[in-house]
Amino acid sequence: MQLDNLYQEVILDHYKNPQNKVLASDNDAQVHHVNPSCGDEVTLGVKLDGDKIASINWDGVGCSISQASTSIMSDLLIGKSLDEATAISEDFLHLMQSKGSEEGNPDVLEDAVALAGVSKYPARIKCALLGWMAFKDASVQAHSKEEK
Amino acid sequence: MQLDNLYQEVILDHYKNPQNKVLASDNDAQVHHVNPSCGDEVTLGVKLDGDKIASINWDGVGCSISQASTSIMSDLLIGKSLDEATAISEDFLHLMQSKGSEEGNPDVLEDAVALAGVSKYPARIKCALLGWMAFKDASVQAHSKEEK
Amino acid sequence: MSFDPVALRRDFPIFDRTIRDGRRLVYLDSGATSQKPQAVMDAEIDFYRHHNAAVHRGAHQLAEEATDIYEGARLTVAEFLNAEEDEVIFTKSATESLNLVAYAMGNAKVGNRFHLTAGDGIVVTEMEHHANLIPWQQLAERTGALLTWFEVTPEGRLDLSNINSVINEKTKVVALTHQSNVLGTINPLEAIVKRAHEVGAVVVLDACQSVPHMAVDVKALDIDFLAFSGHKALGPTGVGVFWGRGSLLEELPPFLTGGSMIENVTMTGATWAPAPRKFEAGVPNMAQAAGLAAALKYLNAVGLENIHNHEIELTTYLLNKFADIENLRIVGPNNIESRGGSISFTFGDIHPHDLGQFLDSQGIAVRTGHHCAWPLNRKMGVPATTRASLYLYNTHEDCDALVQGILDAEKYFGR
Amino acid sequence: MSFDPVALRRDFPIFDRTIRDGRRLVYLDSGATSQKPQAVMDAEIDFYRHHNAAVHRGAHQLAEEATDIYEGARLTVAEFLNAEEDEVIFTKSATESLNLVAYAMGNAKVGNRFHLTAGDGIVVTEMEHHANLIPWQQLAERTGALLTWFEVTPEGRLDLSNINSVINEKTKVVALTHQSNVLGTINPLEAIVKRAHEVGAVVVLDACQSVPHMAVDVKALDIDFLAFSGHKALGPTGVGVFWGRGSLLEELPPFLTGGSMIENVTMTGATWAPAPRKFEAGVPNMAQAAGLAAALKYLNAVGLENIHNHEIELTTYLLNKFADIENLRIVGPNNIESRGGSISFTFGDIHPHDLGQFLDSQGIAVRTGHHCAWPLNRKMGVPATTRASLYLYNTHEDCDALVQGILDAEKYFGR
Ligand SMILES: Cc1ncc(COP(=O)(O)O)c(C=O)c1O
Ligand SMILES: Cc1ncc(COP(=O)(O)O)c(C=O)c1O
After folding, report:
1. Is residue C255 situated within a structural domain?
2. A68 and A15 in contact (C-beta within 8 Å)?
3. Nearest CA of chain B to the CA of C275: how many Å?
4. Every domain of chain A and the residues it spans
């Protein structure tokens, strides 16, 4: 079934067992993002250790795609440098915009390649990007705070 | 030619030689009406003698239909009682709304039956009614002034 | 004429197409927008092919014909609502209609009955669509008026227990929906209208979800203003209706200004034509007005009572089926009393987006999310719902497909 | 491709019909509204037949397709204007677009760059269409800002001699037409835009009469906001465009509020989505946006330069013929320098209404009256004019028919 491209096993697993889904109280920055067309929400915190991402933690309500994508993202980016995280995020954004023409590089995106199928469902791309956008926002805030 | 129904000789005559087209200074009421869709304007004064219309005088710019209709109306209604004038005006309004199905009663409307053809040209009905509406307005004002 | 939705479907060309890998289209999203019968498309095209010209503006034959069609459409709408011709204003949508009345009130100067100041009250309800909520929030903010609202009960009904304090001597406007686009609830207008008029307030009815589905008679309802969208009533996109009581339209200031709505214009000011012109600035959506008239004629030919009965039957059928599905929670009244064919629900822990996506893979179109009624969703304690909304072309087969789809989704996501 | 208006006419079904007793349709009223090629009707119908659903609101296939078409239309408009996609907003008409920017500025609070107060200046011109005049009068009235204007010379050109005092340090907005719908004058924008930006004012361009007739590049013109109507550019009725510079749209408050334009909503307040969504409340005019995209593609395929050249040729031809008619006075520039194909005139003492009616009897559609530019008419000393306006489907034969019609009218009314 075509739909199986969208709902890969990995996605449903992350949905049922989301990673890092407990908000910490000592974040350098914390943001709240919503998807206004459907009401999905995520609150996401970032803690840096110099240039390195020490923690990504979050809470939220939403569909399997938004929840799994946030979970996968947090797993993938914790421990990376800010530059690495930015590069990976750009790769992921590019994959989401590919309209099903790309599979994603598993060496870079790891589990996130499971979300490749989303790019064929335009209405769902925003779901997949919700957590990533929140991370981008929070990491910029955390970084600028550190610089001060 | 179909158009001759609209531009009857009588109309062009009144257009070239409009009757009562000199504003008097001693009117009981004077009004200014415009046709906002084309800019035609008429200023019209009424003088009453008790219940009788002693004078209708006017000035204005506009197309042959609006000018001729005002001229014909003034000729027709001067000397009539207010009630007679109202009845005639209603007859004329009815004729204008007849979409070409009626010819008008020459015993009542006299020269104004020449305007029957206008009813087939919806955009021109307002032209034909401009002076009549101004008269209605002015005569009501003049009458209520007299009553005081 | 006996009512036969299967026969009616043949008038709607979209049902000739298929969805995802050749599946039959089960369209259960008429609450968002309805499908269009061929007659509506024909009316739009006939206008463009044979009569296209700017109305009210030319003394040539095409302009005359265009004006006849456009004004004829106004008459059709007026008759449909049991209103007067000059009380019907064409807008682009219900959203514009509701903004029109809110902005126009904001334009009212001191002495005008619509002039609002701090201390005046505007009343809405917790079940309003954003289109009948935000314009009033904005008006309140601009004028200092106080926005208050009727609450919604857990069953999805308006709580009118405090009607006399919610609508009080300060209240100038009561704006509410006739039928909730989420809950399906049909609101009891009589008490509200009576109380509003008692305190001298006007009643603005958002009739988006009622006009397409049941006879709405503005005189019988005794309301003051009404808004609906053409596209939800089988009509074209890009056309809506704003209706107002004639005597009130006289006093209501204009909203959009520009050509064709004026009496006189100088460089420093302008005066207005009488309604409906006053509220229709610019070259109007003529072809869409023609299309809307065709849609209303189609609805009349089928019969609004037939349509209403059909929807009640299908809604009852679905509510019964839903009652048997474990973990399915209906958000809104779960009985047919004073409700229409919008059924919102949640289903276990399958998120509405995922359920909707699964249903789509089966050819079933529903809507998911907050349905532009976010405060209502919060009140009902659900971040989002799945909504099936019914119309004249839906069948028992469509309802069965939905039920089966829901059950299959459970299996799919439970794997 | 060589430009052949006779061949193009075949794309416009309306030319298959006849006027008054079987006469050929000579349509010289494109300044009011243009005729539509089949491709535009097909695009609207294709939307309804195959893809109709509410955009941005459903996770089902029809909604995806509808969104693709609608957003694709936005891209087409953006490319047509050399603008960015997110800068293009669909409205119902130019009238709405111009009201949008004027009302939105009125909504700006203290601190917002668009906030106007007493002492601030709004500049228009004496040749504005009511749609680009009255909204600014109203804004001035609401905010206390001062409305001033550029005058028009007897030749029908803007008098820019006092540009530095008309546009001064107080000026916040300069709103003007690109091409006059009465005079045909094309205004020199460079000096005005330069001066406006020098004092920190924004420039709002009414491009109703330019976008359909010549290439308009918002970046090259360096303007800030632009409005045009679809129906004058071969497109459907019921759709217009509002374009704004991206950075300015960020700061401009919304106008219509309701569904799909929000970020978050509670009972007491709301926040807004980024542009273009912020300015598109409600289910949009989707089929009409699709039709407009088809119209712009059609114009591109024919070539805007070809169209412009064709209009210049016909206008020159008519101006020359008119010069030979005694008692015919052209109201506007009587040479082809910086002017388009709108030619207004008076003829002896035959009133424009009568002339227009006579021409109509010959199958010739022109417009008569003040053309929604009443102050301009007064300034030019004419209560009304007759206007012939040309477009790509007009021919020398049409021009000859008009000239003959005018001469015959003289005989007819001289009888
Ligand atoms: C110069 C100009 N501006 C504005 C408008 C208003 O356009 P619309 O009536 O399509 O909104 C028109 C046309 O009527 C026009 O010619
Ligand atoms: C109850 C209700 N009110 C208002 C609207 C707004 O209608 P539109 O988006 O057509 O302007 C809708 C539909 O979206 C609705 O369901």
Report:
1. yes
2. yes
3. 14
4. 3-147
Q: Residue C382 belongs to what domain range?
A: 5-28+304-412
- Among D105, D275, D366, D372, the active-site one is D372
CB contact under 8 A, A124 and D264: no
Chain A residues with CB-CB distance to D59 below 8 A: 121, 123-124
- The dihedral of CA A118, A119, A122, A128: what is its sign? positive
Instruction: Classify domain A3-147 by CATH number.
Output: 3.90.1010.10
CB atoms within 10 A of CB A52: 14
Asked if C250 and C177 sit in the same domain, the reply is yes
CA atoms within 13 A on the CB side of C227: 23
DSSP string spanning D32-75? Answer: T-----HHHHHHHHHIIIII-S-TTS-SSHHHHHHHHHHHHHHH
SS3 D408: helix
Q: Listing from the earlier edge strand, what are the strands of the sheet with B29-35?
A: B29-35, B40-49, B52-61
**What gap in Å lies between CA C79 and CA C85, rounded to an integer?**
8
Secondary structure letter of residue B30 according to DSSP? E
Q: How far apart are CA A16 and CA A3, in angstroms?
A: 18
Compute the distance from residue D282 Cα to the ligand 2 centre, in Å: 7
Overall number of domains in chain C: 2
- Cβ of C95 closer than 6 Å to ligand 2, yes or no, is yes
Residues in chain B: 148
Report the complex ipTM: 0.96
- pLDDT truncated to tens, each residue of chain C (415 aa)? 579 999 999 999 999 999 998 999 999 999 999 999 999 999 999 999 999 999 987 779 999 999 999 999 999 999 999 999 999 999 999 999 999 999 999 999 999 999 999 999 999 999 999 999 999 999 999 999 999 999 999 999 999 999 999 999 999 999 999 999 999 999 999 999 999 999 999 999 999 999 999 999 999 999 999 999 999 999 999 999 999 999 999 999 999 999 999 999 999 999 999 999 999 999 999 999 999 999 999 999 999 999 999 999 999 999 999 999 999 999 999 999 999 999 999 999 999 999 999 999 999 999 999 999 999 999 999 999 999 999 999 999 999 999 999 999 999 998 6
Q: Do chains B and A touch (3 or more CB pairs under 8 A)?
A: no
Final residue belonging to a domain, choices C273, C300, C327: C300
Whether residue A50 lies within 8 A of chain D, CB to CB, comes out as no
Whole-number Å distance between alpha carbons of B10 and B25: 29
With CB atoms and an 8 Å threshold, state whether D137 touches C95: no
Going by DSSP bridges, is the β-strand pair D385-389/D367-369 parallel, antiparallel, or unpaired?
Answer: antiparallel
CATH of the domain at C319: 3.90.1150.10
User: Can you tell me which atom of ligand 2 is nearest the CA of C180?
Assistant: 1
Quote the DSSP letter at residue C308: H
Select from D255, D285, D300 the last residue of a domain: D300
* Interface check D154 vs C, CB under 8 A: no
How far is C-alpha D202 from the geometric centre of its chain's CA atoms?
19
Q: Examine the domain organization and report whether D72 and D168 are in the same domain.
A: yes
Name the closest-CA residue to atom 15, ligand 1. Answer: D208
Selecting among C94, C122, C131, C372, the annotated active-site residue is C372
